[in-house]
Amino acid sequence: MTIRVRPITEVDLPAVADFLHRHLNHRIPPQVWEQSVRVPWKVDAPDHGRLLADGDEVVGVYLAFYSERVIDGRPERFCNLGAWCVLPPYRFHAARLLRSLLAQPDVHFTDLSPSGPVVPIGRRHGFRRLDTTTALVPHLPWPWRSRQELVTCDPAAIERTLTGTDLQIYRDHAGAGAARHVLLVRDDRYCYVMFRRDRRKGLPVFATILYASDHRLWRQMALPFGDHLLRHHRLVASLVPRRTVPCPPPPWSVRLRSPRPMLYRSAHLPPDRIDHLYSELVCVPW
After folding, report:
1. Per-residue pLDDT reduced to its tens digit, 61-118
2. For the sheet containing 263-265, what is the strand order?
3. 158 in helix, strand or coil?
4. How far, in whole angstroms, is CA 260 from its chain's centroid?
5. 75 - beta bridge partners?
6. Dihedral sign for Cα atoms in the order 80, 83, 87, 89
7. Beta pairing partners, 54
8. Distances from the Cα of 236 to the Cα of 90, 117, 132, angstroms
């Protein structure tokens, strides 16, 4: 048998998507896996990750989501490590997939959704932990509305209101499979919020806040925002990472006891320059 590691190309995506559906997460149909791997933003990506092949059979996959960002005025290249699945008889070769991805020069690596066993493996390969302090903010019914406030997920309203970097972020993520978008407006201020539906204890009723453009306005409008998610998305609470919304959480929130770990590896970027955008979190609706 010849066990090979090679890049995932466009031709491989149907087989990779079927493999991930059958062996990693059967709730995600193969066509959704395939669509999720094709990121909606513009990037000169060399591949979609790595696959492990036994002859012509796919026996392992490690997805990668690439992006090119401008950080502190400098262009930076990122590789977000996504789903990693290897069939049990081939687990001895699993680390080859990781080492192949990490061999790329001048790239910052993130792993924003590592499973438990992956964390020590990442640490042995130079990854550091990110601060994942998270508040759980229950969504409460809030029928009161001010004429000076607006909460909407209407794409036309979002396009009309956002400017500059926020507008570019929205356009880059509007087609991402897991990203959801809400606009908060009060008087002449706005807060653009991006979130994803997440599971806890098997229940898909939580929103994880991935981006908030105006932290203070989000906190001031946390009640109407939560009411919107409760009524329109049937989500009972938001998970609000301190790294995403650094201001103090609302007083009715509680600190999450066991937030999921996140990792990154960079030669020079500090942790406060790592965010949740342009990643598996916005692409894969698990």
Report:
1. 999 999 999 999 999 999 999 999 999 999 999 999 999 999 999 999 999 999 888 9
2. 3-7, 49-54, 57-71, 74-86, 108-111, 263-265, 128-129
3. helix
4. 13
5. 70
6. positive
7. 3, 57
8. 40, 30, 21
Q: Is 255 exposed, middle or buried (0-12, 13-18, 19+ CB in 10 A)?
A: exposed
Cβ atoms of 80 and 37 within 8 Å: the answer is no
pLDDT-based confidence at residue 213 (cuts at 50, 70, 90):
very high
Write the DSSP symbol of residue 232: H
- Binning the chain into helix, strand and coil, the percentages to the nearest 5 are 30, 35, 35
Whole-structure pTM value: 0.95
Q: What is the pLDDT of residue 108?
A: 98
Q: Of the candidates 9, 104, 92, 21, which has an alpha carbon nearest to the alpha carbon of residue 51?
A: 9
Tell the residue number behind the tokens 């998507």, with chain if given. Answer: 17
For the chain, report the end-to-end CA distance as a whole number of angstroms. Answer: 34
- pLDDT over 80 (residue 145): no
Over residues 174-199, mean pLDDT:
97
